[in-house]
Write a structure and sequence with these properties.
The strands form 2 sheets. A 3-stranded antiparallel β-sheet has the order 1-2-5, with no helix packed on it. The protein has no helices and 5 strands. By secondary structure, the protein is mostly beta strands. This is SKICH domain-containing protein. Keywords: Coiled coil.
C-alpha cells in the first residue's frame, strides 16, 4: 500500500523511508513516490538541505532526476 492517495494534487512527490540522520561520508538514497497528477520535467532535481533552510538556494548538494515512463516510484542517490 502506498503512503498517500496517488490522485492527490496536494502532495505530488512524497519521500519514503527517511532515516532521522545519516553518518558523514555515506551514500544517501532518497526514495520517493509520485502522484498521478505529477508532471515530470527534464529540469527536476532532488536536493539535500540543512535543517532550517529558508530558500531553494540553500541546498547543500543536488542530483538531476528523471521519471521513467509508467513508473510512480523512483530514487535519487547521493554518493558519499
Amino acid at each position: 500500500m502506498l503512503p498517500f492517495d496517488l490522485t492527490s494534487t496536494f502532495s505530488q512527490v512524497v519521500f519514503t523511508d527517511i532515516p532521522h540522520s545519516y553518518p558523514p561520508s555515506t551514500t544517501v538514497t532518497c526514495r520517493y513516490t509520485y502522484s498521478t497528477a505529477f508532471q515530470p520535467n527534464s529540469r527536476d532535481w532532488v536536493g539535500i538541505f540543512k535543517v532550517g533552510w529558508s530558500t531553494i538556494k540553500d541546498y547543500h548538494t543536488f542530483v538531476w532526476v528523471e521519471q521513467e515512463e509508467g513508473q510512480l516510484t523512483s530514487q535519487a542517490v547521493f554518493k558519499g
